[in-house]
Amino acid sequence: MSEVYMVRFNSVILVLTLSLLFFSCDDDDTENPVISTDPSVVITAPGNNASVSDYVKITADAFDNVGIARVDFYVDASRAYIDPATPYEMIWDTYGLKHGTNHSVYAVAYDTDQNSTGSATITVTIDTSLGTPEPPILSIDSSNVTISSIPVRWSMFQEDDFFIYKLIYDTTDQHEPSLHTINITSVTDTTRIIDNLMDNTLYFIQVEVSDVFGKKTASNIESVYTLNAPPPVPVISLVSNGLGYKSINWNKVTMNDFLSYEIITSVDSVFDLTDNVIATITNQNTTSYDYYTNDTTNYYYFLVVKDNTNEYSVSAPYYNTPQINYALDFNGSKYATIPYFDGLNLGDTYTLEAWVYQRDANTFDRVIDKSPPGSPYLQYSLISGTKLGTDVCADGNPGRYLADTGVTLFEWHHIALSYDFGFITYYIDGQVVDTMSTGISSSCEYTTTLNIGRRKLFDEFYFDGSIDEVRVWNITRSPAEIMGNYNINLAGTESGLVCYYQFNEGVGDIITSLQGENGYLGNTESADIFDPVWVESGAPIQ
Questions:
Q1: Is residue 253 located within the same domain as residue 297?
Q2: Taking the model in full, what pTM does it have?
Q3: Which of 268, 273, 387, 502 is deepest in the core (most CB within 10 A)?
Q4: Under a CB-based contact definition with an 8 Å cutoff, are residues 313 and 232 in contact?
Q5: Is the pLDDT of residue 349 over 60?
Q6: Mind listing the pLDDT tens digit for each residue in 237-278?
Q7: How many domains does the chain have?
Q8: Which of 319, 345, 367 lies at the terminal end of a domain, its last residue?
Q9: Helix or strand or coil: residue 297?
């Protein structure tokens, strides 16, 4: 039939045939195929003929009817980066490129059917005056760090506008401003040994680079400790004043990690850190130490210098030359003189002490005496004759008061008396031996000297024997205080101690007080016929 229709109804058949075609298409479940087209791509940044520096972000937009698979970025005709996903971009590192040079940039987009299209090419110019130099990368050769040096290196500057490297090192990471810098003007000079450093010290190190445009940037900060060195070996000396006081002196050590000085004593010359430490000193500038001891043992002295890691150096031993305990010997015509000072007027409370070795016993022999220039003839005294005794002057009404006992001849004994508003207590070897009341309590005051070994007024009552450890107090010492201190050396700083004479000089005409109120032998500060004699003391002072 179709043929008939084709012959007879040619135009109709043509229409029917087309209709059948359309019906045939509508009845088919297969979708119409999409005709793929080439993608489009454009560089959106930077702009054409732009000036760039440092790290440059290049961006592109790409479109396609079947989807973009990736965008390839090209710099100077070389593929520099592939970005498979939007946003399409890359970072271009322009560090090291010469200032003023031109460079081409374009992108190629690929769709999912592998069709591709390239963007228009843009041209950019490198302008290093706009940015900052590339930061160097700093490293430290830790294996070769010493007690005073640190070797370092860093990556080389790649730009043609290099000006200077500045190597900065300090003990803090706050480098600006820093007094410790090394300037390096060669672009290829990228290693240094930082020297003249302190040992055992944490240093922070950084390198800074500047270009000719004044722009600068800095590397990473590295930190490292220099190695530790032992402290310098100190040198010590010792001076003794013969009164139990010693002065230890040494040279100041130069070190940055100082911890302490330690003064150590030992009975032998072999140092041991566990020996007796008599002082720990944390001030590095201190170069002497004074101390008092009643220990008569002769020691070796060491000075230890420690750093903050407890590493130490120790001085050579200094041996304390044996100290002889001296006394003054009076033969019945000798004496010593203490010039007047305000403290010698003792008031209504006082204590007088001394060690004596008595060879003869006359009734009123003086160990200590302060007399007025005339009437009423008496002020105060410590008498050791046949008995202990004292003189008292109050309201111009003098009196002499003797105890019931005295010391044994040819033996060393400690004697003392205390006066408390008219009440007197006598002591021998720390023990109370007598007490009495004078009935008077007001004292007299005179600007006269204090004598040891005689009564100055009328030049009488000379002592025959040896005297040691004379102590004058302006307070009433208690029985417990007398007992607790009669046979030991005092520090000299005790409250109420007016003057204290240990007689350990051994030579010369001057006798020194720990309070600075010095006296002299005999009648003058020079040798004379009234001078007592220096002898070795037998007083059992500890």
A1: yes
A2: 0.48
A3: 502
A4: yes
A5: yes
A6: 887 755 567 889 999 998 888 999 999 999 888 888 888 899
A7: 4
A8: 319
A9: coil
- Position 149 scores a pLDDT of 96
Residue 150 lies in a domain: yes
Which residue matches tokens 């040891």? 452
249 with 187, same domain? no
Q: Are both 314 and 360 inside the same structural domain?
A: no
Q: How far apart are CA 53 and CA 94, in angstroms?
A: 6
CA distance 395 to 106: 121
Band (pLDDT 50/70/90 cuts) for residue 6 is very low
* pLDDT at res. 7: 36
Residue 72: the pLDDT is: 97
Q: CA 355 to CA 412: how far, in whole Å?
A: 7
Q: Pairing state of beta strands 68-75 and 102-111?
A: antiparallel
Report if residue 7 sits inside a domain.
no
Mean pLDDT of the chain: 87
For residues 412 and 476, state if they share a domain.
Answer: yes
Are residues 341 and 400 both part of a single domain?
yes
Confirm if 37 and 65 have CB atoms less than 8 A apart.
yes
CA distance 383 to 18: 161
Residues 88 and 155 in one domain: no
Residue type, position 503, single letter: F
Residues 426 and 531 in one domain: yes
What percentage of the chain reaches a pLDDT higher than 70?
A: 90
> Distance between CA atoms of 502 and 245, rounded to whole angstroms?
11
C-alpha to C-alpha distance for 294 and 291, rounded to whole angstroms: 10
The residue among 417 and 504 whose pLDDT is bigger is 417
Q: Report in angstroms the alpha-carbon separations of 415 from 75, 358, 405, 428, 542.
A: 110, 11, 11, 5, 17
The yes-or-no verdict on residue 27 having pLDDT over 70 is: no
Residues 6+ apart with CB under 8 A from 174: none
Q: How far apart are CA 517 and CA 498, in angstroms?
A: 9
Helix, strand or coil, per DSSP, at residue 13: helix
Residue 29 lies in a domain: no
Mean pLDDT for 503-522 is 91
* DSSP-assigned states of every residue in 35-57: -----EEEEEESPTTEEE-SEEE
Q: What is the pLDDT of residue 18?
A: 37
CATH code, domain carrying 60: 2.60.40.10
- 367 and 514 part of one domain: yes
Does residue 1 have a pLDDT over 70? Answer: no
In a domain, 542, yes or no: no
Give the residue numbers spanning the domain of 197: 138-225
3-state SS class at 68: strand
Which is nearest to 139 in space by CA: 155, 156, 153, 157? 153
β-pair type (122-126, 50-52): parallel
Query: What's the whole-number mean pLDDT along residues 445-467?
Result: 93
